[in-house]
Amino acid sequence: MDFRFYAFALASLLAIPAEINCQLNGVKPLLIPCYNVSAIPGITIANNRPPTNLNVFLELLRRLEDANPTVTIRDFSALILQRLQQSGIILSTLRPTDLSIAIPFSPYGYEAIKTTVFLHEYLTNSSQKLDYGDLDQADLCYFHYMISNTINSTLRGDESSTCVRSAQYQMRMRRDSELLNRTTRNASVGRRNREDGDTETVELSPRKFFMKSPSESYSDCPVQMGVMYTNHGTVTIGDVLRGLAAAFNQEQDDKGADNRYATTLAGNLAHSALMQADVPLHIGTSGGWNSSINPKYFFLQKNTYTDLTDQDIRGSVDGLLLAKRLDTIHKKYNDIKLSQIIDMYYSPSQRGVFDPSLRACNRNILYSEYITGERLTEEVGAVIGTLDRIGQYPVTVIESKYDELVDAAVNNFSSYLPQINDPTCPQTESSPIERTTTDLLIFLDHSLSYSSVQPIISHILDGIDVNKYNSRYTLYSGTNGVNITNHTNHLIDFHKAYNLTVHDKFSGQFDYSRVYEVMESTIKAKLNNNTYKGGESTIALLVTKSAPSENEKNFLNQRKEIIKQFLPDTTVLVLGYGSPADYSSVLLNPNKDFITLSESNNENDLKPIAQNVIDRIKTIPRAIVNPNCGYGFKGTTSTVSLTQYVDLHTFNYYRIAPNYFFKGDGGRSLKIQALSTGSITYCISRNQSRPDNQNTNCKTLQTNIDSVDISSYCTGSITECSPIYLSIYGNTTQYGCRDYFCRFPDSIKFTITLENVRCTSGSISITANFLLISSIIVYLLRL
Description:
- Helix 20 links the parallel strand 13 and strand 14 (594-596).
- It is globular and about 90 Å long.
- Strands 9, 10, 11, 12, 13, 14, 15, 17, 19, 20 and 22 form an 11-stranded mixed β-sheet that branches. A 4-stranded antiparallel β-sheet has the order 16-23-18-21, with no helix packed on it.
- The chain has 3 domains: 3-150 and 229-419, no CATH class; 433-624, Rossmann fold (3-Layer(aba) Sandwich), CATH 3.40.50; 638-757, Jelly Rolls, CATH 2.60.120.380.
- The relative contact order is 0.08.
- It has 783 residues and is α/β, with parallel strands linked by helices.
- It starts with a helix and ends with a helix.
- It is built from 22 helices and 23 strands.
């Protein structure tokens, strides 16, 4: 091959302005920075990007939705694909030296064929503007990489270690045979009529889609990009989005192809048939992630017949199933969002998309119920000619042989699908769903190894519902109290801000006095905000290798008492070395609030440690706070209401400290009111932090209010008065939740009101400042 000609051709193609959104002539202009390390350093290396898991994907999708509140879901679903999906972008063998002229990437991977045809032939092009809101260019690139499917077969040099990861997955190898040298085929021009009556011409220039040959070296375990880790198997989430977009823009072409099938399963099967052009067809390739905590690279088990992997199959099936059920979904709630559908479908809980059976763990059962072999054969047959006519395939298929290839593709797929052994739905459901909502302050000891603490913190954040509806966090250095991340509910901020370089930048020991200074001032500022009403737990997590010294213990014991009295809704947890007794000066309940930490390079050792922290955080109820009280509990008698949302068949747990109801003028009461067209059940207890209807006082409400007299709840001193524990359970709903903080359309809105209550400080209020000053002096004198 004359590489000088190829270099000229590649540079010329990349220099052509893009007249259409989806093309094969080069990387889309919006996406060029995603492949330009001068624009975004390190962006082309997956290790420098956030994990490709469900929560990160949903965060980016929600932020795009929030930036386009007036765009209909019909347009939005198509726009994100037209603007941000482009598959098959591969590193060229050529390396331009001036990245301002050309980048060494181009869409010549075979995945570019089908994606381009799917978007142009089977999805209506939207002329609406897509705003990107607070997403920066790097965020858009993360989303692009997640939804764009590419097989990178480049020999990396790390195969001796990475290929083992894919081999650990269940082997489903099929008979491999040598690929014949095939000639490229010139593509034709594809035309289709748009709704506005104009005809769009899509110029698909002749390209070389690299096939294996004896003279070229390829990785034994190629990397598949555009796949997303879920608890129910890895999926190509771009296929899911295409299925939903097709369903919102449903149409049929003149060949009878239903675009819901064409953009998902039927289209992918037809593509595989044209790529292999042989009988029998080889369907499916599994693989494994570099990590289940920080999934960034997905390694395939083999480097042949990768045109329809297990991941493609799951994504295609899921996209088609959701598309087929969309009419039912949309009728229940016509303002539904893409993020809500995907959240409900892939949720690790048992909720499903308005139906407990419509979820990813039921994939195979749903497929057998909604998709027949006969219909699938018809749809593959309807799309294969269009793909072959417009696409650029390595061989020329005799048109009369289409039916033979279609039958082989459908038959092999039907026999292969049951062999994909993904986790299925449990026969009996576990306990009700619980949502965590917390404000987590993490203080990090930098003497711990980055390779241990980064996966642990990452797994904790992924497991406590960090998003705009629930939890938020801040990561601090335990050495000097400096923020590593801002106060945020974005998971991506952790992965952007915290890396090995940042970790190693901080030196010195874990400074308990500085940690407590930052922790107390942060929480005090929150309480002094006269709009803050709680609705979340407040937790300080100290991740440390060093237990307090004897000199530090007196100071910490004093601070522990002050926190108990003035920050009654603050829980301090320690993830550290040693034993619970080593941290008795820090923790109110060492046996519950200390989690043992050990360092390891094996994530199988680290994940249980992180899970122990997650489990403890989930047991801590949300606080209800009177904003009139502030840090010093100086406010007068008042009434305060907190508006909250509970998901269907889900528990929210709350705690009201006695500081907020110990005193009051007139009759004090606690009122609960259901505001949505649904019903809730509330339970109250004075000694159980998670009350339920088994042994506590409970009542069901439906758009009405209930009042509980709490005037006699406290006798004696405030230290002898127990908190009020409250649970709210979502019983029924009419799918009417449209507020910004409704995570799902069936979320139920309610209010909790404290009426005629007065703020009451703890018993050491008079000496609090003196104790603070004296304890610091004593601590400093002992240094």
